[in-house]
């Protein structure tokens, strides 16, 4: 399967991917944030569909999700906001969210809508590999959506191989045992984990997430991996500066 | 029909393990080992010994004469309130702390609503000399002060959950986040029959001692093992799961669940999941849960902190959907009145959670010969402040 994500992964550069929570800090700036990120040289975007109970996320993303829901963000609202997004941007777009809102929308209806809009992939942390393969893989494929799985420092080698086989875009490599936004800086432990994964010569490129917040951590994370994802640090930037200063943030990273 | 979990943790369409990859190693380790470990002779021996000498089991099955006269049937009370720590919760925490030891874990985390599970966890951690951190919603900390003090006295750290509705659901989220952050040395003792497989099945098996005892106790008293009905209150559903377990496949035993209707099922302030919920994913399992049409989990309400949960264990969703169990709900007022009635007819002050089970008589008429066993899941000491306010006792 190929789409904007797989093409982007073939470019000879380290990829910077940014996560933001749709509907935060205000309800109606989703498109503006996406356009600004593309304009400022970001390579890929994860649009967070907020959930009331984001159990893999730390306080920053939790709070942005709560605020976004309070602002009125829903699955339907997000799809409406994005309906013309492909008229203005060509950057790979991924929706990242928890499985229950997708289940309530209807998995097939959700995937179909994503295809119509021009979404390239999904990250659903609480939809595990075996359930995906048994119940949903065919639907994702039908609508041309890549599904991104996570691995962590505790994931066994055998399971990493299994995830590698099941992956069709990139592997989301969680940098450390943590929820989002909780560790500061990478140490020896992360470095040896990054090297261990690199030495496995996986078929699927890896993009590192969790704990990346500045030039230094981006550089460390992408020494062996194909790219890095920044979430909490960007949300904090939005909280402090609003949506007008995206360039400043991207310049802090590279 | 089978009412137990299958190999993947499904009860009919409910259950499973919808967990982020970060939890996979721990949950998988547990899944692969829990059955094998808990039925080893040495485990069973230690578990049963502790239940006997430390918890005080078997808990009595008491014929409630005056309550029976009042409601025109034969009512037996399964006295889980007489367990050490005052509720059924300790059956599970004893089992799980032994499990944690077998798995080589040194640090224990738990969530708690009313504080009963937190106290039961803090207790077994003190017993085994293990570090204990209990997550509890900020609102629950305020309304369950005596249990917070007990946990602290037992050496546990009580961490407030400040997100969302600041009750049981949010305490559970925080405990899960802690487990993600501490994947190697920590065991998460879930207190109810909820969570990813194998938790609902494991908790149910540890709690099944309740119905195991009811069988032989009823045989002694009534000459038969099976009552006509077993009744329990349901939040997540651990006391209910244990009370039903050995009767699930005995068709002549009617199974009755009483949920918390709060201020009324349709008042907007309720925790009656079977009436208000739809199938969804909460805390790692597919089950009935209260949510918006958009799939956001809604904030439940009940006067009792222990039933203030927007979901129900997957086993119970299956019992509801399949029609095996009858589901009712009792309002705050009905539960409080039933608690007062039990106090004054039998001299037993129940937990407010438990009061909901006794409100069944407002909703269902039993026949004169019916033998009805009610799970008296907890005692009311922790709720005295709420009773004082409600009945203006001070």
From TrEMBL, chain A:
InterPro entries: Aldolase_TIM, RibuloseP-bd_barrel, Trp_synthase_alpha_AS, Trp_synthase_suA
EC number: 4.2.1.20
Pathway: Amino-acid biosynthesis; L-tryptophan biosynthesis; L-tryptophan from chorismate: step 5/5
EC category name: lyase
Transmembrane domains' residue ranges: none
UniProt entry keywords in alphabetical sequence: Amino-acid biosynthesis, Aromatic amino acid biosynthesis, Lyase, Tryptophan biosynthesis
GO cellular component, one term: cytosol
Pfam families, alphabetized: Trp_syntA
GO molecular function per UniProt: tryptophan synthase activity
CDD domains: Tryptophan_synthase_alpha
Reactions this protein catalyses: (1S,2R)-1-C-(indol-3-yl)glycerol 3-phosphate + L-serine = D-glyceraldehyde 3-phosphate + L-tryptophan + H2O
SUPFAM superfamilies the UniProt entry points to: Ribulose-phoshate binding barrel
Active site residues according to the UniProt entry: 46 (proton acceptor), 57 (proton acceptor)
Family: Belongs to the TrpA family.
NCBIfam families hit by this protein: trpA
General function of this protein: The alpha subunit is responsible for the aldol cleavage of indoleglycerol phosphate to indole and glyceraldehyde 3-phosphate.
Subunit comment: Tetramer of two alpha and two beta chains.
UniProt protein name: Tryptophan synthase alpha chain
Gene: trpA
Automatic annotation (TrEMBL), chain B:
Modified-residue entries (N6-(pyridoxal phosphate)lysine), positions: 89
Gene3D superfamilies: 3.40.50.1100
Cofactor requirements of the protein: pyridoxal 5'-phosphate
Pfam families to which the protein is assigned, alphabetical: PALP
HAMAP family tied to this protein: Trp_synth_beta (MF_00133)
Family the UniProt entry places it in: Belongs to the TrpB family.
This protein's name: Tryptophan synthase beta chain
């Amino acid at each position: 399967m190929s789409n904007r994500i797989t093409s982007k992964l073939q470019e000879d550069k380290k990829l910077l991917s940014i996560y933001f929570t749709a509907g935060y800090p205000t309800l109606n700036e989703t498109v503006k944030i996406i356009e600004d990120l593309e304009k400022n040289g970001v390579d890929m975007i994860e649009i967070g569909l907020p959930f009331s109970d984001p159990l893999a996320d730390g306080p920053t993303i939790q709070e942005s999700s709560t605020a976004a829901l309070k602002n009125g963000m829903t699955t339907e609202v997000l799809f409406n906001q994005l309906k013309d997004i492909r008229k203005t941007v060509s950057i790979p777009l991924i929706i990242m969210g928890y499985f229950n809102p997708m289940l309530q929308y209807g998995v097939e209806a959700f995937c179909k809508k994503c295809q119509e809009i021009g979404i390239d992939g999904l990250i659903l942390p609480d939809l595990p590999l075996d359930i995906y393969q048994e119940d949903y893989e065919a639907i994702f494929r039908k609508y041309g959506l890549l599904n991104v799985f996570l691995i962590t420092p505790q994931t066994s080698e055998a399971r990493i191989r299994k995830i590698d086989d099941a992956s069709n875009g990139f592997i989301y490599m969680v940098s450390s045992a943590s929820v989002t936004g909780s560790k500061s800086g990478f140490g020896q432990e992360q470095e040896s984990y990054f090297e261990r994964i690199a030495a496995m010569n996986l078929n699927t490129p890896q993009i590192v997430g969790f704990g990346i917040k500045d030039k230094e951590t981006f550089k460390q994370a992408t020494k062996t991996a194909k790219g890095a994802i920044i979430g909490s640090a960007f949300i904090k930037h939005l909280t402090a500066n609003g949506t007008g200063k995206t360039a400043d943030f991207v310049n802090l990273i590279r | 029909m089978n009412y137990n979990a299958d190999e993947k943790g499904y009860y009919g369409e409910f259950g499973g393990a919808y967990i982020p990859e970060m939890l996979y190693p721990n949950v998988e380790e547990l899944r692969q080992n829990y059955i094998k470990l808990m039925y080893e002779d040495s485990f069973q021996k230690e578990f049963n010994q502790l239940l006997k000498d430390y918890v005080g089991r078997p808990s009595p099955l008491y014929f409630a004469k005056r309550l029976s006269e009042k409601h025109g049937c034969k009512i037996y009370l399964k006295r889980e309130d007489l367990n050490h720590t005052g509720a059924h919760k300790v059956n599970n925490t004893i089992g799980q702390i032994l499990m944690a030891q077998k798995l080589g874990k040194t640090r224990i985390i738990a969530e708690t609503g009313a504080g009963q599970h937190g106290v039961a966890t803090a207790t077994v951690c003190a017993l085994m000399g293990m570090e204990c951190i209990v997550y509890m919603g900020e609102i629950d900390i305020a309304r369950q002060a005596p249990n917070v003090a007990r946990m602290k006295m037992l050496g546990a750290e009580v961490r407030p959950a400040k997100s969302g509705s600041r009750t049981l659901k949010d305490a559970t989220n925080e405990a899960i986040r802690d487990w993600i952050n501490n994947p190697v040395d920590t065991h998460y003792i879930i207190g109810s029959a909820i969570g990813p497989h194998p938790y609902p099945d494991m908790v149910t098996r540890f709690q099944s001692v309740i119905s195991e005892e009811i069988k032989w106790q009823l045989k002694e008293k009534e000459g038969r093992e099976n009552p006509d009905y077993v009744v329990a209150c349901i939040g997540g559903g651990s006391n209910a799961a244990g009370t039903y377990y050995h009767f699930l496949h005995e068709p002549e035993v009617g199974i009755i669940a009483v949920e918390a209707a709060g201020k009324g099922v349709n008042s907007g302030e309720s925790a009656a999941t079977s009436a208000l919920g739809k199938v969804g994913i909460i805390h790692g399992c597919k089950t009935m849960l209260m949510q918006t049409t958009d799939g956001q989990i809604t904030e439940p309400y009940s006067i009792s902190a222990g039933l203030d949960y927007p979901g129900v264990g997957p086993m119970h969703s299956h019992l509801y959907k399949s029609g095996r169990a009858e589901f009712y709900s009792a309002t705050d007022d009905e539960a409080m009145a039933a608690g007062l009635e039990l106090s004054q007819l039998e001299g037993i002050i129940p937990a407010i959670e438990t009061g909901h089970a006794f409100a069944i008589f407002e909703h269902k008429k039993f026949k004169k010969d019916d033998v009805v066993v009610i799970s008296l899941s907890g005692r009311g000491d922790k709720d005295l402040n709420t009773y004082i306010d409600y009945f203006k006792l001070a």
